Amino acid sequence: MEKRPKILVVDDEEMNLVLMEAMLAPLGYEVLTAKDGEGALAKVARENPDLILLDVMMPRLDGFTICRMLKDDETTRFIPVIMVTALDQLEDRVRGLNAGADDFLSKPFNELELTTRVRSLLRVKHLNDQLRYAHQHINYITRHVEGLLGSFDPLQFKLETARKELLQQLLGLKERAPEAVLVATVSGPESWEGWLYRRQGGTIHSEAVAFALPEDSPAGELLLRAGREGVFGNREDEKGEAVFTFVKTSLPAGPGPWYNYAGYYHHPFLVVAFNYPAGVTAYELDVLRNLLTYSQFLQLVGGQIREKEEAFHYTIKALARAAEANDEDTGNHITRVGIFARELARDLGCAENFCREIALAAQMHDVGKVHIHPDILRKPDRLTPAEWRIMQQHTIYGARILGDALHLKMAREVALHHHEKWDGSGYPAGLKGEEISLAGRIVALADIYDALRNKRSYKPAFSHEEACQIIIIGDGRVRPEHFDPAVLATFQRVASHLEEIYEILKD
Q1: Residue range 136-303, CATH number
Q2: Which numeric CATH code is attached to 6-109?
Q3: H-helix or E-strand spanning residue 32
Q4: pTM (global) more than 0.70
Q5: CA-CA to 263 of 20 to 30 Å: which in 3, 82, 103, 496?
Q6: Where along the chain do its domains lie?
Q7: R_g of the chain, CA atoms, integer Å
C-alpha cells in the first residue's frame, strides 16, 4: 500500500509547530516535529522524511548547519529542505543555497504559499526518486549479469537458477521493489508457461506456472497488445482491474490485494511485476525492459548449452558403445555402470553436480578398448601374460582418447583409474588409497558388481546375493581390500537398490 508523504517540521517555537501541522495534516501528510537541531537529525535518521521544513534561527545547531549536514550525507542528501526564515537579506539566502537548501519560505508565511511549495517539492522529489531508483535497479541487475558472465561455467550453468538469482536482485531491493514478478514464455496458442517469483519475508519463493492468456481477453489486450511498448497501472486505474482479475484467477498468487503493476511483452517473453509500494511510472518499465532483455539472453544461452550438452552426451555414448562393439559387454552394461556410480555417489553425500557428471563419465570407463584387438577382447580362454599386458593398456588408451579437455576430466580419471585398487594391487600405475580419484574408486566397484552379474566366456552370471558376497567377503580374485572402505560401506547400504536397477536394465 502507498505510504503518506512524511514531512518533518523543525522549529524551536511550539506555536509554529502547531500551526504548520494544522495546515499540512488535513492534506494527507504525516507530520513529524522536532524542536531543535539534535532532535531533527535523530528523527531524520529514524523516520526518513520526504521533506523537511527547517527553521533557520535555533539554539546550538542553526538551520544552515543542519542543512549542510543533511546534504553532505549520502543517505539524506536527496531529501528536499525548505528553509523557513524571518531573515530577508540576500546574503542570508545565498548562505542557505550554499548549505544546500532547495527553497525558502519567509515568516510570517501564509497557508497557500506553504502548501504550494510543499506540493511542488514533493512532486519533484517523487520524480527524482523514481529516476534514481530505476537507475539503481538497472545497475544492480546489470552488475549481477556481469558477475554471471565473469564467472560463467557452461558445465554448471542452470537457466532457472540464473533467472531466480536475477529476480532476487529486483525483489530483494530495499526501496520501490515489487512483491511478485511473473516471467513467462509462449508454449502454444494462447498458452503460457513460466515462473512466479514472490518475496515473502526475507525469502524469494518461486513456483512453476502454466496459464491461458488470449490476446483478445481484457488482460491480454493490456499485457500483450499494449505491453509491446510497456504498460503499467495503479490501483485507481479501471483497466488495471483486468490484470488483477487475471492474477487472482489464473496464477497461484492468492486473492491479494493486488495493485500497482508494470508489464512488458516481447515475443515470446512476458514479464509482469505486481505490488510496487508506490505508484508505477515509466521508470519501472525501464527496469522491466532490462530484466526482459537479460532473461532473453539467459534463455538463449541456456538453449545453446542444452543443445551442445545433448550433442556432447550423444557423442560420448556413441564412443562408449563403439568401444564395446568387439567386447562381450552390451550397451546396457555401460548404462548400468553409470547409474550404479551415480547412486553410490549420492549415498556418499557427493554434490549433485558430481553425481550427474559421474553418471556420464562412468560410461566411458572402457573407451580405451577401441585400441585392443578383437581377438584379445573375445578370447574365450585365459589370456597369456603378453595378452594381459596388452589388455591392461586400455586404461591408458582411454585416458589418451579423452585428452585434457576440462569437461572430460572426470571421464579421463575414470578411464585411467577404474582398475586401480585401494590396497595398491591394481593397474596401470599401482596407485593406492586416495591416490586414486574418488570417481575412479566409485566406478571400480560399480563395474565389478555389474561384471559379476553378467555371463562371460570365462565365468557364469552370479546372482545379486552371490555378487555381494564376493565383493564384501572376497573369492580370491576379488577381495574387499580392493575397494575404498567408504565406497564399500555405501555399496552395502544401497545394494538392494542397485539390484532393482539391474533387474530393470538387464540384457
Answers
A1: 3.30.450.40
A2: 3.40.50.2300
A3: strand 30-34
A4: no
A5: 3
A6: 6-109, 136-303, 324-505
A7: 35
Tens digit of pLDDT for each residue in 326-377?
Answer: 665 555 888 999 999 999 999 999 999 899 999 999 998 998 988 888 888 8
Q: How many CA atoms lie within 13 A of 95 on its CB side?
A: 13
What's the grid cell of residue 390? 596388452
Strand partners, 42: none
Round to whole Å and give the CA distance between 187 and 391.
52
Task: Return the bridge partners of 180, or none.
Answer: 198, 274
The reported pLDDT for the residue numbered 137 is 62
pLDDT at 430: 96
DSSP-assigned beta bridge partners for residue 186: 192
Helix axes 159-171, 282-323, angle to 10 degrees: 160
- Residue 246 has a pLDDT of 82
| Cell 522491466 -> residue | 288
Could you tell me which CATH class the domain 324-505 is placed in? mainly alpha
Residues 262-301 pLDDT 10s: 888 888 888 888 888 777 777 777 777 777 676 667 667 6
| DSSP states of 294-359 | HHHHHHHHHHHHHHHHHHHHHHHHHHHHHHTTTSS--HHHHHHHHHHHHHHHHHHT--HHHHHHHH
pLDDT computed for residue 332 by the predictor: 84
C-alpha cell, 208:
512453476
In contact, 141 and 169? CB cutoff 8 Å: yes
In contact, 100 and 63? CB cutoff 8 Å = no
C-alpha cell at 474: 572376497
Per DSSP, the residues of 183-209 read EEEEEETTEEEEEEEEEETTEEEEEEE
